[in-house]
Predict the 3D structure of the following.
Amino acid sequence: MPSEKGRKPNVMSPKRRSQGSTVLLLTLLLLLLVPLSGLQSQSAGPTPEQLTHYHQGRSAWNAALRATRPTDKMASAACAEGHLSDALKGGEFPEAHLALGLLYFNRSGKGERYDPDAYRAERHLKHAGEHGSGAVRAEAQTYLGVLALHCRHWAMARQTFDAANGANIAATRLSAPGPTREFQARAERLAAVRRVGSSIAAYYQAVDPADPAPSDASYRTALQTLEGMSGGLDGTGAALWRFPEREHPRPRQLSVPVFPSARADWTLGGGATPPSGVEPVSVERFAEAGRIWASGRLGVDPPQVAVAGLGTQDRRNLMMGLVKSLYRMEGQRNFTGAAAILDRLAGITEAGTFVRQHRIWIALEGNPNLDEATRLVGGPGAQNDPLYGSELFRLADRLAAAGRVPQAQTLLERLAGMNGAGVAPYRALAKWNLAAMLVSTRTPSSDPAVWQRGLALLDVQQETVPAARYRQELRLMMQLRLAEALVAGRQAPRVETVLQAAATTEQGIRGRMPGMPAGSAVQAFSEYLAKRVFETGQQDQYMNGFLRRTQYAPLYVASRAAATGNSAEALRLLQQAAGLAGTNTPLAARLRADIQALQSGGPDSPATRARREFVQRWNQAVATTRSARGVGAGDAAGFRRAWSDTATAWDGLVAAQGGTPDELTMARDYAARSRQATPGSRTSSTNVADASAYPAALQAAVAGPYRGRPIPAGDRMSILRATAPVTPNRDMWLEKLGRDPEALQLMVHWFNRGSSVTLAGNRVGNGLRAKRFDSGADLLAFLRENTLPEAHVLPIGTTQWTVAPQSRRATNPKWLGSRLGYKTAAYCLTNGIPLVNVRCSNPVSPILESVQQSTTPATMGPDARELPAPGADPVQLSYATPQPGWTWPDFQRMSGVMGTAGGPAFPICAPAVTLVATAPVPPQFPLPPGVTQMPHCSPSRFTLGRISTRGAARFGPHEDVGTAESRRR
C-alpha cells in the first residue's frame, strides 16, 4: 500500500469544482427528468409503436378473415393477438383493449365459464368500458352484455345493456387522433343488439329464474318485455338462433302435464352458421312466439297471429292458450266470446275434434240451439269423434224434451243400430227411451209392426239398461198398445192372443209403477179397448171374446137401446147387452127386467098381466098372513092351519112370473118364517132409538163425536170402499150408498142373513132380536131416520164384518170378521150404538129391535106389506153411455250425461333462443408522421429480420406465430 506521503492530494481548482458541480446537477436533473418523461408519455396516449402494433394486429385480423384453410386462419388470429397485445404496452390505449377483447370474443367458440378466451374478452372489454368514452364504452359494454347472456347472468346482462344504452355516443373522445365517426357509427348500429339483448335477459329472468316455480307476476313481466321487442339485427353481426325444446320427463305420480322451461344451447357462442336443428329467427318472430307462450301460461287471450306461419311448438302453445281462454269464457257463460275462441282453434289441426265437441256442448247445454246442434252433430268429424254416441243421445233427449218427438225417435233409432265400444251404453239408453216414448205418446202408431219392433227392443236382455226400472210394466204397456193397433188394423184373431200375453206379463210384475191404473191393468185397458171396438164397428167380431169380460160392452149397448125410439130395436139391443153382461149380476137383472117390460108392449101385454097377477097374489098372501097373526094361541089347530095356508101362499110366489128378484127372495123368506111360527105371544117392535132396550153386552164404549183428521181410504175387502180420504158426513155417506146397488144389497144381506142372524138363532136375548129389511130402500129409509148426523169414535177391538172379495157377487156371500187394531170413526144409531165403519162402510153391530110379551094370543109370523097395483105407463130405459177411466202412464225419459270433451294435453313450452354475435374488425388509427407501416407477420413465412419494431424484438412473437424456420433462427 503506498504511504500517505507518496499520494498527491486531490485538490480541485475552484473553476473545476464549479464545472463538476454543474455536470452533477445536470446529471441529477436528467436522471429525474427521464422517468418523468416516461410517465408523461405513458399517460398521454399510445406511442407510435403501439399504433403500429394496433395497425399490424388489424391487418392480421383481416388476413384471418380472408384465409380459407383452418390452420392459416388460426395462425393469422394468433398473429393479430400478439400485435394487439403489444399495442397495450405503453400509454393508455382503450381502443386496443376493445380490439383485443373483440378478438377474444370472436374466438370464444364455446362461450362457457371455463373458456379462457371468454375470460380474456371480459377483462379487456371491461377495461375498455371503464377507460373509454362514448362509442368505445357503448361497444365494449354491448359485447360484455352478450357474454353475460352466454353465462346465464340475466340480471348482469340486463344492467350491462342498460348501461351501454346510457352512454353518450356523441361525446366520444379517442385516446389518439383517429376515426371518431367510424366508432360512433359502430356503436349506433349496435343499438339493436343492446335493445334485443336487454329484452332477452328480462325474458329469461321470468322463464329461468332461481325459483323453479315462476309466479304470474314473472309471466306478466316477460309478456310486457316481449310486447316491446322490435327492430332487426341486420348489419350488426348478431343474430337470434332458436333451439328445439327439451321436455322434462313427466312424473308418473302427477296427473297434470309438466310445462318445461326454455333451455337454449348457450354453449354455441359465435359462428355464422347454426348447427343442425337450430334455426335463425327474426326478432319479431321470437317476440311473437314468446307472447304466445306467456299468454298461455297466464291464461289470457293469446295474440292474433297467423297459424300457418307457426312452428309445431308455437302452434301447440297457441292452442293450449286458446283452450284456457275457452274454459274461462265457458265458465263465465260468455258463449259469444267462446265461439270466437273456437273459430280461432278451428284453424289448428290438432284441435279439430276438440272444437267440434265444444261447439256441440254449447249448442246443447250452454246456449241451447237445437237446430244448430243438429247440424253440428251430423256434420264433419262425426265418425272420428269419440263422444259421437253421447252427443247423439243428448241431442235426442233435448229434442224429446222440446216436443220434437219424431226427430228424437229418428236419432234414437240410428243410435240403437250403431256399434262400437263408446256407443254401447248410449245404445242401451236409446232402446229404453224408444220403448218409453212409443208407449207414452198421446198419438200412438196404428201399425202393429211398430209395436213388435218396440217389444224386440226389450227382448235383448244384455243391452237393457240395468238401472231401468219398470221394464216389465213397459213390456205390458207395449203389448196393450199392440192390441190397440191390431184392433185398428182389424186383425181380431190376434187381439185375444196379445191380451192373454199381456195378462201373463202382468202376473209377473212384483211392484206397481206410479201412474198405472188400480187393480188389473189388462182389465182396465179392456174397457178402453171395448170402446175402440164399438167406435170402429167391430163388435160383432168380439162378441164371444174379451167383450164378455168387460162392463163397458153391455152398458154401451144398453145406452144405445135407451137412445133409440124403436121398441123392437131397443129390445134387440137389450137382449144383446144381457148376453154380454156375464158375471155382472145387478146389471143382468136390471136388463132382464127391462127386457120383460119391453116384451109386455103395454097394459094388455103378457108381462103386464103377469105383473098384475103377481101383485094380486102377493096382496092375497099379505091378507092371509095378517089373518094368521090374529089367531089366538088357544086355538092350536086353527093356528097351525092358518100359518100353513100362509106358507102355501108365499110358496106359490117363490117362482111366480112378474116379480122382481128382491120380491121373490122376500117371498121365500116369508114362507120359511110362516112355517116356523109358534103360538105363545104377540110380537111388537119398539123404537129402535131406545138405548135402554139394549143389553149391556152389546153397548159399545163410544168415546164421543169424532174430531180427528179425514179418514184414509179403505182397503179392497170392504162393502163400500172410499177411494180417497173422507171427512165423516152421514148424508154424503147415505147418498153414496144409495148410488151403489151392490153395496146396498150386501148390507141388506148382512142384516137379514149375515152374522146378526147367527148371534142366537135369530134371538139375541132379553127380548131382543135382529131386525130384518125387505129391500135396500127400507134400509136407507131406516138409516136416514135412526142415524146420528155426526160420526163417533170407533174404539180399538171392535169387531167389523166384511165380505170376501171373491164372493161379492155370489148369491150367498161369505162374511169375515176381524177386530180393529186402531181407532177410527163410525156412523152410529141415535142411541149411540156404532153401526158402520166410516172408512169402508163395513158393519160392526146388528140393528136390534125389542120384543115385548103379552097374554094376547098371537103368532110370530112375518109382517108383510102390500104391493101397489102395476101401472100402464110405457117402459122408461135409463142407461148412460159409459166412459172408461183408462189413462196411459207416463214413462219418464232416461237422460244420460253428455261425455266431457277432453282438451289437448300438450305442454306449454317457452321458446329457447340464443343471441349470437361476431364483432367486426375495429377501425384504423392513422400512423404518426414518419412511421412506416410494416407488414404484419406472415403465418407462412416469418423471419426475425422482418420484425418491425423494437418492442417486437424485445418481447418476441406469440408462441403460435411463425414457422419452424423462424423458431429455429
